[in-house]
Amino acid sequence: MTNVSDALLTLDQVGKRFGGLTALTDVSLHIKRGEIYGLIGPNGAGKTTLFNVVTGLYQLDSGAFDFEGQRYTHSKPHLLAQVGIARTFQNIRLFSNMTALENVMVGRHLRTRTGIWGALTRHANARAEERDIVQRARDLLNYVGITAAHQTLAKHLSYGEQRRLEIARALATEPKLLALDEPAAGMNATETVALKALLQKIRTDGITVLLIEHDVKLIMGLCDRVAVLDYGKKIAEGVPEEVRRDPAVIAAYLGGDAV
Amino acid sequence: MKLHRPANRHLALAAILLVLPFIIDALFGHGWVRIADFALLYIMLALGLNIVVGYAGLLDLGYIAFFAVGAYTYALLGSPQFGLHWPMWVTLPLGALIACIFGVLLGAPTLKLRGDYLAIVTLGFGEIIRIFLNNLNAPINITNGPQGISGIDALQVGGFSFGESHQWLGVRVDDVHLHYYLFLAFTLLVIFVSRRLEDSRIGRAWVAIREDEVAASAMGINTRNIKLLAFAMGATFGGISGGLFAGFQGFVSPESFSLMESIMILCMVVLGGMGNIGGVVLGGILLVALPELFRNAAGPVQMALLGKVVVDPESLRMLMFGLALILVMLWRPAGLWPSTQRRRELNAEEGA
User: Fold this and answer.
1) Residue A10 carries which DSSP code?
2) Chain-wide mean pLDDT for chain B?
3) Do A114 and B202 count as a contact with CB atoms less than 8 A apart?
4) Relative orientation angle of helices A189-204 and A159-171, to the nearest 10 degrees
5) Which of A213, B24, B172, B231 could be B107's S-S partner, Cβ–Cβ 3.0 to 4.6 Å?
6) Nearest CB to A81: which of B201, B218, B233?
7) What sign does the dihedral A241-A245-A247-A251 (CA atoms) show?
8) What contacts B339, CB < 8 A, 6 or more positions away?
9) pLDDT at A3 over 60
10) A20: number of CA atoms within 13 Å, CB side?
11) Hey, are the CB atoms on A119 and B197 less than 8 Å from each other?
12) Looking at the partner chain, which of A55, A129, A172 has a beta carbon nearest the beta carbon of B218?
């Protein structure tokens, strides 16, 4: 065990059931500040369920998780976003009829304050805040490398750009932990290389990254540590090289007793 | 980006709006100025519903209830019903406030509902309000039941009444003209508020919820509060319009607030162009003016062509109305004047 102070997110025996189906069984793991942490496992292993639990979309049935020393057993998505957990979705969920810029501007909602009164009067503070929102959104679009016009509707962006736009929108909330659900899915080799560089840049800028990914090469080349889920249980955790040689992991991926 | 319009175009528009009632009066007669007044009331309603349906994407089929709440607030506090004659600058804001509270009351239990389910619940809410108004004449007579409330005070500011003609510089200005200017002022206010909200942090949050509620909440938007705000704002506009309606008509009864009215307002929003203020205004004007035009024309046209009135103009009107709706939905699914975003989508599809 590492000591508590360098852990950003700690899962403590988290369990989640859907009726008779157990999606997560006593999953415990800890993610350290500043690392890129990979979450892998066969389809249906419970990776996305785990994401949904720590981002408040699902309520856990047992256990708890700690984020920055604060314990959560139930919460709401917007509150977890407030404390610094942002995410992307496996099946891209952009605001498709808003422009790329507006998508990222929505991400700033949480860190800005203008209400009805400010919107109506457009007093100096409200105007300054609005300018700041636009500026930050532009910067973030450039940061993730979206080269298309910022006024393009999200749904007209290329697939790879949509994935990056989701990351920009999540970054706009100023997260401490960025949870990415299969960001490289459907990307070609060039796009994946660019994504890898982007994730390393994000980490360098001080944001911890939690990553679900199927692309083993990406995981191995990028992650500091990896956890493997299978049938809702954590079967291995450690540095990528170690995990790759773990008999339980090989068995889970290849089936049967591959040892 | 918004097209920057030169100031003189604004001036021209202002001048047209100012002389419009006199032009209408001269060309079509007095009755049409009255119709223009109603068009303005409906535009306010449609703009209010546009916030709920167009921006936040919450399908509300009971919107007329807020109109009713505003109208009855004004009526009860300014009529012989209770012998109260509160001034308009108290009853109008009060009606808006009460409608706003009803908006939150409707919003709160329906927060988890979407689409069809929300539509059914709001439809029920609209009917509940109407039925309450219909039956609150016993055991204590509050609303005077189906007979409605008559003798409602005219809209009045200080000593100036909008309900009677005034003579200025030798020009006689009738009550319908005065109401036109009053309603125009309120409509412009509602348009201003809509535009400011649309282009703000709050407006973006509404649209985000419409586009993807799960993603919106994951981005830190408190979807509960923002949805309630949409209901409250929409209801407030409805309440103001209702109060003006009561003062204008001098009479309110539950049958003015039927489901058909809710659907009519929804049609204005959808036909004109959901989410686009200009489109909604256009929808309001067309859906008030065209049926009236048709009602006036249907009888004489039949007489001229067939020598007798075969179909009752009133039922023919609804037929044509339905037909128009179908045609617009077929040919201009985003509305007659879609929002820039929707227009951009259409262009992109054509270009592809």
Assistant:
1) E
2) 89
3) yes
4) 10
5) B231
6) B218
7) positive
8) B54, B273, B274, B275, B276, B279
9) no
10) 0
11) yes
12) A55
Best interface-test mutation with B: which of A106, A108, A162, A176 has the largest number of B CBs within 10 A? A106
Q: Which two tokens stand for residue B78?
A: 């300014």
CA B281 – CA B195 distance, rounded (Å): 13
Closest to B238 measured CA to CA, from B55, B65, B34, B37: B65
Tell if the CB–CB gap between B341 and A99 is shorter than 8 Å: yes
| Close Cβ partners of B51 (under 8 Å, ≥ 6 residues apart) | B194, B197, B206, B230, B233, B234, B237
- Amino acid B88 reads M
Nearest CA in chain A to B344: A153
CB contact under 8 A, A86 and B341: no
Asked if residue A211 lies in contact with residue A183, where contact means CB atoms within 8 angstroms, the answer is: yes
Q: Please say whether the beta carbons of B218 and A77 come within 8 A.
A: yes
Is the pLDDT reported for residue B352 higher than 60?
no
B140 interfacial to chain A (CB closer than 8 Å): no
CA–CA separation, B73 and B218 (whole Å)? 40
CB A72 within 8 A of CB A66: yes
First and final C-alpha spacing in chain A: 27
Query: Which residues, at least 6 apart from B161, have a Cβ–Cβ distance to it below 8 Å?
Result: B154, B155
pLDDT mean over B235-255: 96
B contact test, residue of A76, A93, A123, A133 with most B CBs within 10 A: A93
Reported pTM: 0.91
Closest partner residue to A95 (CB to CB) among B211, B217, B345 is B211
List, for residues A240-256, the tens digit of each pLDDT value: 999 988 998 888 887 65
Query: What is the maximum span of chain A, computed from C-alpha positions, in angstroms?
Result: 70
Digit-coded pLDDT (tens) for A182-197: 999 888 899 999 999 9
Q: What is the pLDDT of residues B108-159, one digit of tens each?
A: 999 888 888 999 999 999 999 999 999 999 889 999 999 999 999 999 888 8
CA distance B190 to chain A (A): 11
Give the C-alpha separation, A160 to A20, whole Å.
37
Of B201, B215, B342, the CB nearest to A95: B215
What lies within 8 Å, CB to CB, of A209 at 6+ separation is A35, A36, A37, A177, A178, A179, A180, A199, A202, A203
Cα separation of B332 and B21, whole Å?
31
**Chain B environment of A82 (Cβ under 8 Å):** 220
Which residues are within 8 A (CB) of B341 and not within 5 positions of it... i.e. 6 or more apart? Answer: A97, A98, A99, A153, B275
pLDDT confidence of residue B329: 83
Q: Phi/psi at B54 (nearest 5 deg)?
A: -70, -45
CA distance B224 to chain A (A): 10
Q: Inspect the interface and report whether the beta carbons of A57 and B218 lie closer than 8 Å.
A: yes
Tens digit of pLDDT for each residue in A45-78?
999 999 999 999 999 999 999 999 999 998 999 9
Q: What is the DSSP letter of A156?
A: G
Residue type present at position A221: G
Quote the CA–CA distance of A76 and A53 in Å, as a whole number. Answer: 10
Model confidence at B351, pLDDT cuts 50, 70, 90, reads very low
